[in-house]
Design goal:
The protein folds into 2 domains: 209 residues, D-amino Acid Aminotransferase, Chain A, domain 1; 113 residues, Nucleic acid-binding proteins (OB fold (Dihydrolipoamide Acetyltransferase, E2P)). Helix content is 18%, strand content 37%. The longest helix has 12 residues. The N and C termini lie far apart (45 Å).
């Protein structure tokens, strides 16, 4: 049987290294941009609304890790089984686990599943999940992180069996403006622009860009208000972002919750309530406000930032624990190249 490594082009072999399999590393992250563009030296992928995971398979052992190193192996047993069936026994994949609401990925639907850590309960939840792989940084002893992205994606597509729960993240060449228009028409979250010859570098990079169809980002929960009228749980979340290690207030969010989530959040936040405001610039209104230790992160949609740094028309999408609160900063879009 021919070894796949024997068929690699010389340009790819020149950029590979034989190294021990990594156990975890910070994934490559995209920089927010607000300028659609088309360029033959870039490829464009659909931006999925899910949870970023790195997959590590070493023989019979499969581990799913979030970007901050938390294990999700027990949460997604059908994905573990899918990775265990792959023809390669030692690899690292980068991708996104998603759940669908119709034809669009839904973080809210995924949240119904992502908090279940019992494998049998997770499988019985009724929420199907899929893993969209878009990169392969390491395979069979070869570190591929210096290899050009286009070649890494070609290897990914040719060396793995896709179908069932494992999907390949397809891309478009050059036509970013057309693809973003299509994303808006189909109700997607946005697209990712990636320089086709980019190596895989840990941390945020301008060689990968994200262009969103609507505004949204993660924010830190710093407090909540009491419910009013017939509402249960809580009234609104008080949220913010870090700047120079200080938590800045960004506004209150009172929509996007169902009754079950309101009750769950209230229980979780009661456990971390504190007497003082965590914000350096807390809101003046204090009646009915409860402050909490700023350790929980959630994702929010909104229409725009106001001139004084507040969210306009924000809506809650769901909590996420794949990002540390201290890493949450206000995303500032940069111009495309």
């Amino acid at each position: 049987m021919t070894d796949w490594r024997d068929e690699l082009p010389e340009r790819v072999l020149d950029d590979t290294r034989n190294v021990t399999m990594p156990r975890h590393f910070e994934p490559m992250l995209a920089t927010l941009s607000d300028t659609p563009f088309s360029d033959e030296e870039w490829i464009f992928e659909r931006k999925l609304d899910g949870i970023r995971l790195l997959v590590f398979r070493d023989g019979d052992h499969v581990e799913l890790l979030t970007r901050n190193g938390q294990s999700r192996t027990e949460h997604f047993p059908e994905l573990v089984a899918c990775f265990a069936e792959q023809p390669h026994r030692r690899f690292v994949l980068d991708g996104e686990v998603v759940a669908f609401d119709g034809k669009v990925t839904s973080f809210s639907r995924l949240q119904q599943r992502s908090g279940i850590s019992d494998p049998e309960e997770a499988k019985a939840s009724g929420v199907s999940v899929y893993f969209y792989a878009f990169d392969c940084p390491w395979l069979d002893g070869l570190d591929l992180r210096r290899v050009a992205l286009r070649d890494r994606k070609q290897l990914l597509r040719s060396q793995f069996d896709f179908g069932k729960a494992l999907r390949y993240t397809a891309h478009r060449n050059a036509c970013g403006e057309e693809y973003l228009a299509e994303a808006r028409a189909k109700g997607w979250e946005g697209i990712l622009a990636k320089q086709a010859d980019s190596p895989y570098r840990c941390g945020r990079s301008r060689r990968w860009l994200k262009l969103k169809c609507s505004h949204g980002q993660e924010l830190v929960i710093g407090g909540f208000t009491d419910p009013q009228g017939s509402r249960s749980g809580l009234g609104a979340l008080l949220v913010g972002y870090y700047d120079n290690d200080e938590l800045h207030y960004a506004g209150r969010v009172g929509t996007g919750f169902d009754e079950r989530e309101l009750e769950r959040l209230r229980g979780a936040l009661d456990a971390i309530e504190r007497k003082t405001a965590p914000f350096v610039d807390p809101p003046a209104e204090r009646a009915g406000v409860h402050w909490v230790t700023p350790e929980r992160v959630a994702e929010f949609a909104f229409t725009e930032w106001t001139d004084d740094g507040r969210l306009r028309h924000p809506s809650y999408l769901g909590e996420r624990d794949d990002k540390d609160a201290s890493e949450v900063v206000r995303e500032q879009p940069e111009s495309a190249p």
